[in-house]
Automatic annotation (TrEMBL):
Residues 59-295 form the Radical SAM core domain. It catalyses: coproporphyrinogen III + 2 S-adenosyl-L-methionine = protoporphyrinogen IX + 2 5'-deoxyadenosine + 2 L-methionine + 2 CO2. This is Coproporphyrinogen-III oxidase. It holds the Pfam family HemN_C. One of its GO terms (biological process) is protoporphyrinogen IX biosynthetic process. Belongs to the anaerobic coproporphyrinogen-III oxidase family. Monomer. It comes from Litchfieldella anticariensis (strain DSM 16096 / CECT 5854 / CIP 108499 / LMG 22089 / FP35) (Halomonas anticariensis). Binds 1 [4Fe-4S] cluster. The cluster is coordinated with 3 cysteines and an exchangeable S-adenosyl-L-methionine. The lineage of its organism: Bacteria, Pseudomonadati, Pseudomonadota, Gammaproteobacteria, Oceanospirillales.
Length: 473
């Protein structure tokens, strides 16, 4: 496609001459745009009946299905975490939750044509590997019974793994259940950092799982790291990166830690004085990008990196990369069904989010009603802007002529306000315009969330908070 050349060329332009002042000026708390409008725009007047109607309406197009299952349980409380979770060591507490998940599946499939293939499955949390092997099998059986899971080689069936709560037997079991991609939570390999965030995780645990995943033939393996944690420095994180690069995962997600102790109680255990300064965080980020690009990784965008052979990098070169609530995805054009507490569905032209309170979720399901607590139906304007934001964030370019054709509009005129809001970014070298084509520069790639904000018609001062791990899942 036409956008592949300019996108791929910019991957290898390592930002050697960063203007730290420019980056700090633009690096505000923007949404991650895993959806547009973002979850902060969802409202409680959107009801379960609206979701049910959208499910039935989606059968007309008959898109493939993507299923997200939220497992809210964790054995330990990691101090940095802002996910929707319940800390316990009692795995029996998951049994009634699995029963509710099955009830929710039945409620959803009563409105769906279940002959639609499930091309993507993702278990997130929490910690999905909190479940026992038998509970995992039970959940897969229930999903297969209600939706009919796929055995197609092109399927993308992924699960988040805590290496402290898994071993080689876990991986073998997951492969037998049909998973072909795994994501390991690492965060940092420095012991002092691990102790400060209450996540002591010896490197050997991660290495053993990576080795076994390769032996078993998992299609892709992702490691999660976080920068901005207490006691991190550019040198200490470089040591972690050296070890991670030696492990050669196909994908890396390197998240920016947002310290919001007033919103997340567990973060109050982290000493603010121990956090790296803004300058040091920027140095860590620069070190990360330089080291990973020198090691052959493609900077997909924001916090995602992948080897050129990985499906994410391939999809970006082909112009088919998408964004969903898990971030960047190589599987697009699906209807996403979210199951479990706090999960979000993206079906037809709506977003629907389940209650974020476990008791409320369970009570609603027990009454035989879908657990929808809030949501949104997209307007024509929302769909235009969603498409523009997604293409900009996935391709690092935006073809306004193609946008005009897709929606039968005059895109430069329709989005004149957004283009005007990009004028400062254009002046400062974050984005360039050639006719009706916008191209993000290598430094602009670091600030892609800011560039996307220009197209956001819902954004207010109160909504400019990072919603990456706050509202979903």
């Amino acid at each position: 496609m036409s956008n592949s050349t300019s996108s791929s060329n910019s991957h290898h332009q390592t930002p050697q001459a960063w203007d730290a002042g420019t980056i700090r000026r633009y690096d505000v708390n923007e949404p991650r745009y895993t959806s547009y409008p973002t979850a902060l725009s969802f409202h409680s007047s959107f009801a379960a009946t609206d979701f049910a109607t959208a499910l039935a309406r989606s059968n007309v197009d008959g898109k493939p299905l993507s299923i997200y299952v939220h497992i809210p349980f964790c054995r330990e409380n990691c101090f940095y975490c802002a996910c929707n979770k319940i800390v316990t060591r009692n795995t029996q507490l998951a049994d009634p939750y699995l029963n509710r998940l099955e009830q929710e599946m039945r409620l959803v499939t009563s409105h769906l044509d279940t002959s639609r293939p499930v091309t993507q499955l993702y278990w997130g949390g929490g910690t999905p590997t909190f479940l026992t092997l038998d509970q995992m099998s039970d959940l897969i059986d229930r999903l297969d019974d209600q939706f009919g899971l796929s055995g197609d080689r092109s399927r993308d069936y992924a699960i988040e793994i805590d290496p402290r709560a898994a071993n080689v037997l876990t991986l073998r079991h997951l492969q037998a259940l049909g998973f072909n991609r795994v994501s390991l939570g690492v965060q940092d390999l420095d012991l002092r950092v691990q102790q400060a965030i209450n996540r002591v995780q010896p490197r050997v645990l991660t290495e053993n799982l990576i080795e076994e995943a390769r032996r078993l033939g998992f299609r892709s393996l992702n490691l999660d790291l976080i920068y901005g944690l207490p006691y991190q420095t550019r040198d200490s994180f470089a040591e972690t990166l050296e070890q991670v690069i030696a492990m050669a995962p196909a994908r890396l997600s390197i998240f920016n830690y947002a310290h919001l102790p007033e919103r997340f109680v567990s973060q109050q255990h982290i000493e603010t004085a121990a956090l790296p300064s803004a300058e040091e965080k920027l140095a860590i980020l620069r070190t990360t990008i330089v080291m990973l690009e020198e090691a052959g990784y493609v900077h997909i965008g924001m916090d995602h990196f992948a080897l050129p052979s990985d499906s994410l990098a391939v999809a970006q070169r082909m112009g088919t990369l998408r964004r969903n609530f898990q971030g960047y995805s190589s599987h697009g054009n699906t209807d996403l069904i979210g199951l479990g507490v706090s999960a979000i569905s993206d079906v037809d032209d709506i977003y629907a989010q389940n209650s974020t309170d476990l008791t409320c979720y369970e009570t609603t399901i027990d009454t035989g009603e879908l657990a929808t607590a809030r949501g949104l139906r997209l307007t024509f304007d929302d769909r235009v802007r969603r498409h523009a934001i997604e293409r900009l964030m996935c391709d690092m370019t935006l073809d306004l002529d193609a946008l005009s054709q897709t929606f039968d509009i005059d895109a430069p005129r329709y989005l004149a306000g957004a283009l005007e809001r990009l004028s400062d970014a254009k002046r400062d070298g974050l984005i360039e315009r050639y006719g009706n084509r916008l191209i993000v520069t290598p430094v602009g790639r670091l600030l892609i969330r800011y560039l996307a904000m220009a197209f956001d018609a819902h954004l207010t001062d109160q909504q400019s908070l990072d919603d990456s791990r706050i509202l979903w899942p």
